[in-house]
Amino acid sequence: MKKIYFSFASLAIAAFFIFDATIVKSKITSPPAGTSGDPITNSSCAAGGCHPSPAVTPTSSDLALTIGTGTPTTSLNSSFKYAGSEIYNINFGITSFTGRYGFQIVALDGANTQAGSFTVSNAATTKINTSGGRQYIGHQNANATKSWTFKWNAPAVTTGDVTFYYAFITANNDNEATGDVVYKGSVKISPESASAIEPIDTKLSNLSIMPNPVNNQFAVSFDLLETNKVSAQLYSIDGRLVQELMNEQLPAGNCSKSFDANELNAGIYLVKLNIGQSSVTKKIVKL
Predict the structure, then answer these.
(1) Average pLDDT over every residue of 18-34
(2) What is the pLDDT of residue 177?
(3) Order of strands, sheet of 204-210, starting from the edge strand that comes earlier in the sequence
(4) Domain range 5-195, its CATH number among 2.170.150.70, 3.60.9.10, 1.25.40.10, 2.60.40.4060
(5) What architecture (CATH level 2) is domain 198-286?
């Protein structure tokens, strides 16, 4: 079977993105780790003449890179601020061109080590490959799909700035090397100010989840130090939202809420409790 290789050439895509002239590579199947154009690998197959066609300059509408704790609708650009340890959905969407598509993205801190972690949302379209302790998430099979959603568990705010290095390809689907166009770039985001987020222990005390491990039902109990809006979610260990547990305004004092666990599969789950901008996450085991 004839192997087809794709290469990535740098282009400017918007004022938010940072570029250089390095060429990177990918392929129809899941791209190997280190082909996102990050400064560690800077992989190149240009010398092999895999894709000699010159790249074209895209407009800012060619790529929709969005993020959100729910539906990812906020632009992932330099003005976005991440909350420490928050679980985000990221959508990487190519909004123009026709043919076959692929992508890869990595999140690195200032020391070029992995910042946070990725989780696959749809194993049919995305896959994680690792190299040097870093996760690279990319397409599973390059085809007509040109929108991919996956999860990013942000690091603590003390990590500082995080840079997402990405590359994507638009191929003309003629099974030849010519006529394909590849772009790459990066976007740097900063954390929310640590001083602007009050510690969770200034808002509640005596937090407990009982029983744990749980069989049929569990209760989340805490003392709320002042009237506040409280929400809670149940996540699977891989970051998938399983259930919204609560979202309501509560008065100061003791609060205890019970939840049914009968429909949960056995395994480890995360209960995330949010009060204002502060949050705390606790593990719970379902028997």
Answers:
(1) 56
(2) 61
(3) 204-210, 217-224, 253-260
(4) 2.60.40.4060
(5) Sandwich (2.60)
